[in-house]
Amino acid sequence: MDTRACLYNACAPGEPATLQQYVDCSDARGSDTLAKEFLSKLEMANHPLHFLFTGHIGCGKSSELKSLQTKLEQGKLPNGKKYLPVYLDALEYLDEYDVEPVDLLLAIMGEMSDVLEKQTRIHLEENYLVRKLREIQGFLGREVDLEEAEIPAIGDIKLKLKLLRSDPTRRQEVRKALSTHTTTLHFEMNQIFLKAKVELRKQGYEDFVLPLDSLDRIQKVGNADDGTKSHVEFFIERAPQLTQIQAHIIFTVPLTLARLYAGELMMRYGQRPFVLPMIKVAERDGSTLCDVGRDRLKTILQQRLTGCGEANATPSLDAVISADAVKLLIDSCGGHVRHLMQFTQEACAASRILPLSREAVLKGRGGFVNNISGMIRIDWWNKLARLHVSESRELDLEDEDYVEMLRQAIVLEYRNGIKLNELDDEEDIEIKHDSACYGVHPIVQKFPQFKQAVAVLNTSKSNPS
Amino acid sequence: MDDDELFLPEQDENETLEHLAETLRLANRFLLLLVQINSPSDRNRLMRELQERVPDKPLKEMFLGRLQTNLFRMLEVEELPAGVGAVCVYGMENWLSAGKAAQNSPFVLNLNITRNLFARILPCPLILWLPEYLMRAIQLGSPDFFSVASGIFIFASTNSYDKSSGSIAHLNTLTAIWGLSPEERDKHIADAEKMLADLRHMPETSSNARDKAGVLSLLGTLYYAQALYHKAEPLYIEALSIIRRIVSADHPDSAVHLSNSASLYRSQGQYDKAEPLYLEALSIRRKSLMADHPDIAQSLNNLAAFYMTEANFDKAEPLFLEAMQIVSKSLSEEHPYRQLTTKNLQNFYVAWEEHKRKSS
Questions:
Q1: A33: closest CA among A343, A277, A293, A338?
Q2: What value of ipTM does the predicted structure carry?
Q3: CB A179 within 8 A of CB A102
Q4: Which of A51, A180, A368, B221 is the most exposed place for a label (fewest CB within 10 A)?
Q5: Is the CB of A375 less than 8 angstroms away from the CB of B112?
Q6: Which of A56, A65, A67, A32 is nearest to A333 (CA)?
Q7: Does this model's pTM top 0.90?
Q8: Number of cross-chain residue pairs from A and B with Cβ atoms under 8 Å apart
Q9: pLDDT above 90 covers what percent of chain A?
Q10: Distance between CA atoms of B29 and B118, rounded to whole angstroms?
Q11: Contact between chains at A350 and B182 (C-beta distance less than 8 A)
């Protein structure tokens, strides 16, 4: 496969980074990696930790979760303890759009039993839950032809639950059967977790950890009629169903929910969500470039070139993408890694010549530019300009327009990036760590309407009348 | 940051299509590609042209003509040819109406949920061909799905042969509408809606009725141009019924509205509804207009293009030829409609050749 095709396929925007592709960008994001943040909290936790994890769509959450999983699988942490990761992509078990927390509980049970079985050979004994789940088998058993040979009862569950996917009527029946007993369900589930923990201790593990990915993609819950209301329904109204689970869990939550309902989340989960911000490409003042961030983005591109040269060698970055083009890619993406991947792919398809030129990048990203121009409503230009020229770069979350812009990544969230170990004041750490700052997406900044709106604001600033 | 860069290079259809083709040549795995195109006939043409550019990558076409709720499940059970180059999914505009309804439809919402599952069942790119309003609906209703697109390809509707419409004057309107920016278009829609509301309040005189039919027709076309057929249909139907009330059965004015409705039905694939209306329009025009009136040519073109859609090339040929004859007599060489008719005829023979090649 030639270099261009190799790079193209290595930049698939939908795939989380592999071990080789993963780059630790914490010093450029201004926050720690998920692994660092989560593990430090885990160490101090005396109770089950319900950790909330968020960030823009495409900012790298799945990559961070995978990285955490790898770290845990590779062995002991600095404090000498070992944890078993039970990574669950919630939507692997669900392919219908309306989701209830009960579905999630079932999914967790399925994954748990599967991982325990496969990785640690722990068989969980019969109990109420298993019996209930056997009842569910009754709903499925008739039409389903299971070819698996002798599997212990609870190991069947994952397979059976995946089969539940294809049958909404059955799923409703199962839900009904289980929801009348949710308290019992939780109780039994927690008993199982406790048993699992004890068994794991025998094998040298301290405990297990449940990273739950993709919860932020749920767009419809119950009778809520849009995405945000659904998120409120799932994470806030029904929080007890999630927080009653006695295990260390990482919940992925949508960024807009984390920003709009910070207080409610704090009350129910006991902490603020950990936000994975964009990689900084410029400082808060907008014009000073952030070399660390740009450097990290370059490294990300470099890593994608692994094995793309002749005889599986790795070519140098400038042999494949010209320095001009690299600069433009970094400028265009604003630290949004998925956008970086997309623009790189588009540039590969826009030109047959290597190294890819600046023109190739410009041509390639045309579709994206066109698309985003249609998304921006007329009255948004002024708001964007106001955000851009403001000193504090704070976002008025009361304003629905700004929230929508955040959701659509027209406005990006960054951290102000002061490294924690540079601060010696306890108080400062708390404030600065949490202070988000917002920037207009660099591509949006190039639109004439934006420039005009900024010019108008700047003139009225210098000529107060 | 650099300020002297070219902001948005002008991309013509050929360049965009080549970009899409090159994407298919490079990809060796599942990717999501989104194509924006309002006109179904342009879309069909582009799919053909795309296949021509990547002959070694067979495109699997999946026309979704009726309500579906879960694309992933459909693809799970679909048989893909060996070495398939890409799966093309299109036609959702036939059953997804605009606005919140589309955004909140099971089809769109399920895309978000099943986003990560497509890679497991498809070894090749998935291309969704969408009119503009559906692109928006997916962007808003399934943002996670939308965000993993490897490419967004935007095609404007061109002067293609069956940009069929009620009359040549109407055709000019349609062309103009396609050239509008979304903001301008929305403004026109708002204006038309207001005019319509005002006219509805006025007493029913024949001039008010005519104006009402005209505004209904305009509004319908503003929606038709965006492939919002659900919205256009009732407007065209009402316009037609108003006109029929105030003019005689053979009056050429009703031919315009008959033609509009026929084109709408054709775009929706409702061929059995379209044909009689096309025939009636043609018959009215033959009776009521001078022998070489260009609008007769228009009706002939429409009907011929319709037969082409049904692959009825034998029936279409004499109609295209007659249309050509008429415009050669009544329009100058530079007249855009004469040029359009010439192009129609050329495209017709090319398509016929290809059809003969494929079925031999």
A1: A277
A2: 0.80
A3: yes
A4: A180
A5: no
A6: A56
A7: no
A8: 149
A9: 27
A10: 11
A11: no
